[in-house]
Amino acid sequence: MNPESKMMTHGYVPEWSEHAVKCPLYLTSTFTFDKAQDGKRFFELAYGKDEAKDGESMGLIYSRLNNPNLQILEERLALWEDADGAAVFESGMSAISTVMLAYLKPGDRILISNPVYGGTHHFTEHFLSSIGVEVNRFDAETDLEKLHDSIMADPNSGNIKMVYTETPANPTNAMIDLKQLGRIKASLMAKHDHAVIFAVDNTYMGPVWQKPMDFGADMSCYSATKYLSGHSDLIAGAVIGTAEAMVTVKTLRTFMGNMASPHTAWLLTRSLETLSIRLAKQTANAQVVVQFLMTHPAIEKVFFPGLESMGKKQNRLYKQQCTEPGAMISFDVKGGEKGAFTVLDNLQLIKLAVSLGSNESLAQHPYHMTHADMPDEEKEALGLTDAMVRLSVGIEDPEDIIQIYDRPWTIFKYICPAWKDLSACNHGKKC
Hints:
This protein is of the alpha/beta class and 431 residues long. Helices cover 40% and strands 14% of the residues.
């Protein structure tokens, strides 16, 4: 049975709750034990002191450790990538930081792609570095075969304990070769005989259009605020992965106390029922909008998976790793920052906001907003310029999205001889 079908019933039995069709919301902090021996055994499993036997599962203890809403959600999330398990957190950054802290200590190294979400960049660059973790970055143009060989020749490569990437990258949509990163991880483990974790931020793809564990990843990380939720009404994060990885991550989550609340879990369970159809609609809409942007004279460049303009390497990786391009579009507007701000200041249907993956279309300016903390020279080296607008396409009618985008430029066309260069216009006033 496909995940789309299992989202309706998996992990829940109506007889548990007065035959309710949908799982109710369990707003309780604490659960009773039938016997003291049960409590002993549940804590052994919760604290990782023992492994569950065949057919055994940890009973309910306390909502910091587990809750029916959280358990059902995590079981259903795992189905999307045919994974062993999942862990849900109070935010995407909570999920990402917990994963990194679970596996990295002072003296370790993390191999991480660039760009990544601005919060991830800040956490690695400022916090991990401050506690003695060495951060080694690479980008989409890096020859990963040569990087593999140089790492294998590095006498200190045994300190690399995590390989981390975000693909497609936020906000450039750059694709990173997951197979090659999986090879680097495997070679490190073979050479040094210790665990190396390979984690992928898969937020852009949902997890419908890309499954990183098929390419050797141990886990996929998500801002569940985005497509997994899709309604702009909650903050959450998620990790989907192998059984071993989930034990490690969940053990740290238990003591950090940063799991999602029952109410958040309940809302996310609702959202998973429509995840596939929402993403399909958003992706179809995005392809219509991309075609419009590609021919608009005020647009310098469009960044979207599968476009010829992304280059042969990028297209090879897209076809290798993804089934669809997703619904995230970035584009450079002629006129730099002024041109980009002119577009953003004239939005009507589309909201000027920094999130993504919601039912409504959202647009923002990565250079000065989500990625403001990155050094300017680093952003520009990666193609993240002040001319870039990032658009998260929603489920509206695509023709309405296009019309709204075209409206300010249509005005400029009639009142300004330099309308193709929005930097020459002063927000609708005659030049």
